[in-house]
Design a protein that fits this description.
The structure is a single chain. This protein is mainly beta. The chain has one helix spanning 2-16; strands at 35-39, 54-57, 65-69, 74-78, 93-94, 102-105, 117-119, 137-138, 140-143, 146-150. It contains 1 helix and 10 strands. It starts with a helix and ends with a strand. InterPro entries: Rieske_2Fe-2S_sf.
């Protein structure tokens, strides 16, 4: 009986700690490896040192990765529109101005003429009444003056 309990407990822990059990699933977005390190004192990451600051990198993720400073923690999301089949040209999410905490889907024709917008603080759509998938989140870790996004 003890062995059975130990085996079940070990199995439960290994499932709970797996990357695939993160709770996020989107049939439109492929899983890609992300290995991004950002030093908070590099020139293009200056905004990220302050609360509500953002950093965007288009060399990682599916199309790119955005990092958001929420004050006590950091969040990272893929810059691919989560609401339609992936297309490298039309699936890009963009900021309308530097350090904008919102990203916008450039593919309005896939959204009945609407321009979906998402808040980088939680990855959710900001358009009331419209149901969109959440942005694809990536795990973030801060160590000293560096931010690490790995998936």
């Amino acid at each position: 009986m003890k062995k059975l309990f130990l085996i079940l407990f070990t199995l439960l822990i290994s499932i709970a700690c797996s990357k695939s059990g993160s709770g996020y699933h989107n049939p439109y977005l492929p899983n890609v490896k992300v290995n991004l390190m950002v030093n908070l004192y590099q020139a293009d990451a200056d905004y990220l040192r302050y609360q509500n600051g953002t950093y965007v990198n288009y060399s990682q993720g599916i199309i790119g990765v955005a990092i958001f400073n929420a004050g006590s923690q950091y969040f990272a999301y893929d810059l691919t529109c989560p609401d339609h089949a992936f297309d490298p040209v039309t699936s890009r999410l963009v900021q309308k101005k530097p350090n904008d905490p919102y990203v916008y889907c450039t593919n309005k024709h896939q959204h009945n003429g609407e321009e979906p917008a998402f808040y980088l603080g939680n990855g959710q759509s900001i358009k009331p009444g419209l149901k969109y998938n959440q942005l694809k989140p990536y795990p973030v870790r801060k160590s000293g003056d560096n931010i690490f996004v790995t998936y």
